[in-house]
Amino acid sequence: MMYWYGHGGGGWMWPWMVLGNLLVLAAIVVIVVVVVLFFRALSQRPGPPGGGHGGHVGWGAPPSPGAPGPRSGPEQILAERYARGEIDEEEYERRLATLRGSSPPGPARP
């Protein structure tokens, strides 16, 4: 009981204890912020800035009303097949028209 109630010169330790507690709290806050930012970065979808993710608009200005939107799944696959040369232009246009629900261009079928 020699150091209790101010005996033995122990009064100078309290500022160090307060500083130590503040440093521990600051370290916890920094770790939490880093973890949250890390998981937010992992959860973001890749893509161009400015939107194009359905209803979610990313960073940048929203897309203009007249700008073409992202292709749907089947149209994207069809465009990729055409780009690889698997189908010719006539077949691409015919299948694209079928996907969009309009009559295919070209000669009339009997």
Summarize the entry for a quick read.
It contains 3 helices and no strands.
Alpha-beta classification: mainly alpha
What count of helical segments does DSSP give? 3
Largest sheet: none
Strand content: under 5%
Shape: rod-shaped
Radius of gyration: 32 Å
Low-confidence stretches: none
Describe this structure in words.
The chain has 110 residues and is an all-alpha fold. Helices cover 49% and strands 0% of the residues. The protein has three helices and no strands. The protein is rod-shaped and about 100 Å long.
Main attributes?
110 residues, single chain, mainly alpha, rod-shaped
Topology:
Elements: H1 14-43, H2 73-84, H3 89-100
Helix pairs in contact: 2-3
